[in-house]
Structures are given as C-alpha cells and as structure tokens.
Amino acid sequence: MKLLGKSLLELKKLLEDKEISNKELRDYFLKRVRKYNPALNSLITVSSEKAHPTGVPLAIKDNFCTKGIRTTASSKVLDNFIPPYESTVTQRLLNHGLSILGKTNLDAWAHGSSTETSDYGPTKNPWDLSRVPGGSSGGSAAAVSAYISPAAIGSETAGSIRGPAAWCGVVGLKPTYSRVSRYGVIAMGSSLDCPGPLTQNIEDAAYLLGIIAGKDLYDATTSSLPAQNYLKELNLKNKLTIGVTDEYFEGVDAETKRMVDKSIAIFKKNGHKIKKIKLLSPQYAISVYTIIQRAEVSSNLGRYDGIRYGNARNYFADEAKRRVMLGTYTLSYGYYDAYYKKAQKVRTLIIEDFKNVFKDVDVIVAPTMPTSAFRLGEFEKYPFFGELMDVLAEPGAVSGIPAISIPIGLDAKNLPVGLQIMGNYFNEQTILSLAYQFEKETNYFGVIKKGFANYKD
Amino acid sequence: MKKKILTKEEILHLAKLANLKLTEKEIEKYCKQLEETVEFVENLNELPTGKVKPTSQTTNLTNVFFADGEKSKRTFESAKATENAKSKKDGYFVVKRIM
After folding, report:
1. The CATH number of the domain where B32 resides is what?
2. Average pLDDT for residues B34-44, to the nearest whole number?
C-alpha cells in the first residue's frame, strides 16, 4: 500500500481497520528515517521498537521527557539523561494509542530560531539543504515536511512552532498558554512555554490538540476550562471579522507581503469581513520577550548542576551561557526595576492591546515570518537576528494567545511562506476552523504535497 | 541614551551568581553582547507605564490546590530517582562538602 503523505488520522484508520499492521507502519517510517534523516538531521534519537511497538508513530521534540528514551533538549549537558518519567503530553499521546518514533532536534534548550545552536548539529530545511528549518522546533517541522513522521509535537516560547512550520511548509499550532500541560517539558520560559502540534493538515492538528489539551494535576498553571473536541467542530458556522494591521507588515519581504495579501483576499471571498486595526508595534514585544525570557532561562537553567542527572555546568554552550548571563543581570539587585519590572509592565500593555482589539475582531491575520528561510550561518552574523525573525510571533507569545501558522505557497526561491491566524484566549476552535476552511479552498496551493514529492519512498 | 558600560568585575560577579566559569575571551564577548542587549531593549522606555500593573503570569489562576497525596502516584523510589546520578551512595546523591 502506498503510504507516502497519508495523514495521522488516515494512518490511524488503516491500523484500526487492519489494512496495515503496526510493524509494517513502523518499519515504513524507520525506512524513511534511514533514507532521509542522515541528510536532514531531523531526529537525534530513534526510540526502540520494544518500547513503542503499536500505534501511529510520532516525532517528539527532544525537550519532552520520554520515559526510557534519552532526552537531551539538544544540549550536551543532558547527553546521557534517560528520564525516569513521561511528560504529560507524551503520556496522553500514548494513552490514545499513538507511539513515539523518535526525538527531534532543536536549538539547544530551545534557545534559537534556526536549530543551529543544537549541540548535535543543525537540522536542514527539507526544501533546500543549504537553509535552516527555523527553530527551535526545527527537527519536528522538518520531520513532517519530509514525511519522516506523519505528525510531530513541538513547543513554542515565542515562534518556536509557528516559525519552523512556516519555513518548512507545514501547519503549526501554538495553543493558548496554560491550555496544554508543561509537566515534563524541559523548562525554558515558564510563563511562556506552550507545547503544540506540527502537522500536514488541520484535522490532525485539531485531533492532537484535543488529546494534549486540558487540566493536569502535575502542572498547576494548566487551565481548568475543559478541552473541546476540536475535530468535531471544524466547520465554520459564522462569517468572521478578521483584523489586519499595518504594524505586522513593516519590514516584511515584498513577496511574503504579496502572498499574505492574496490569502487575505481569499478570506474575503469566503465572506469574511476584513477590518483594519491598530496594534502596538511588535518591536516592543521583542524587548519584553528578550528580558522576561532570559530572566526565566537564568532561573530554569540553575537546576542543571550535574549532581542528580546530566553533566556539569561547563557543558553549557555559548547561547545558553549568554542568556543565563543576561537574565542574571536583569534580575540582579539595582537593575530589576529598570528591566524586569518594566518589561512586565509593557507585557500588561500588550495584553490589554490584544484584549481591546478582540472586542472588534474574531481573529487577526499576519505573516508568520518576515521572509522565507535563511541560509545556514546567517543567524550568527547579526546580533538579535533570531529575535528579529520571530518579531511577528512575539506579541502573541508574551500575551499568551493562541495562533496557527499555515502554508500559503512557495516564493520565487521555491521556499514555503506561512500566514498566521491569531485568536482570542482559549479560542483555538475559531483559528483552527478558519484555517480548515482555507485548507479546503486552497489545499495550501499544493505546498505540502510538493514537499512530500521531493522525498519519495 | 547614555551607554551603560559593564565592567569586567560586574561580568565576573554575574558569572559567579550564575555558577558559570567563563574564559577571558567569553568575559570580553559577553561584556559587549550584554551592553548591546541593554541598548536594544531601551525602546521600552518610550512607553509610559507609571500606573500599569506588572504581569507575571497570563493565566489569572489563583490558589490552585490539590488534595494531600493526590500527586503521590508519580513519586519515585530513591533507586529510580538517583538512576541518572553519576555519584551516589545508599540511595543518596553525593555532593561536594558545603561546610
């Protein structure tokens, strides 16, 4: 049977109908891993067949603790760490009969936007091996894009799901902060971290969100609002008011801009109302994020002392050390008010800004990234390049609202471009439904199919 | 805006707080990069925030309780808890002498 490009839900049905065996399915993906992973470096650990013999195999970002499977966060500090417990996200996937194919590469500790800061070497963009996949969930995005895995789990602190989804031409959903448990996710920015799915279509994203969302006893910050059956309600019932703001088009590459405009015309054609809105410049969110995230990083990385697990602190690489140093500085005596507290206050302004706008519109659409994927090595050349690339994701991240990135075509360099739909708090259903309608209408201009066609069986 | 100059002593103090050992080259590099970052985030001062309350979390959750023992299901035995440790004795982690 031809399996190339079958969605997670299609594969699940084939297994349930006994059209294909668990072994055949796993062997199929393992064969693809052997064939394509050496060039892409998407998976850094493949799980043993004994541990996960049944269920559709998924690729999991290597910052989710997986019981008995090495978990490194792509840092040599955790080179030898075998978690004795399962993260809530992966536990829920296993409870639903899914399995773990392997662990995907990321920027070390998820610090980055290109997957180049990984201590296990960069992941390559499946569309052009001389380019980065985006990050930090670059390995997960590349795995879905090249069909090394039918779907993947990533995590986002600011842009780490949406960015690589846009640059690898797949669907990436960042849920509302607190919608999905962080228990067992190697902490980066604790007030920002959101696990979420990277998939080839909206149905798979809705299905996975339905599994991983919801209250968790082991993460006190999870919301007690019940998770919905996102898959069941995918058809939009109403016409929406879609907010568009000039602030999110400043400095955006002309071609990306044109493609986003074309997609907005499609939303309009489907009967939705486009409304011009005004939002704070995302430039402020970069500064808020830079301060708050580094502060939280310096605290979260304090626990790695090599005593209980992992290696000693001299194993930290450059990017982690730089972030810890800055976070320590902004939290230290005398500077706390000027930096950390100021950032927390501007964070409030960004939240209020979104809340006001969501009184008038149902969703906001914007480009996901200012350009398509960069070449390997570019990020190192400029300070703040990662933050500047994530600029359009950062306001949503610091405010905690949900957002999804979907492919909207290929640019002249034959690289995917993404559009993001941001929604109000806990309104994942609306952004998924609008994206679903767009998918039905355009099939993402063939981006996902073309991506798979580059990686034949 | 007045440029904030970080001294080598300040960098070393931060490294001590963060429990990181830095090489001379790193000290120089981080000195420069920290300065750049501090300059970079200056734009926040363009926004008046006098009466604005700081946000430390976005969930608005307060007083999240759980019943005693409710979380015990995932408690480890000491053998399990110490299985990743390089140095252990009788089910305990071995640490450097602190006094």
Report:
1. 1.10.20.60
2. 92
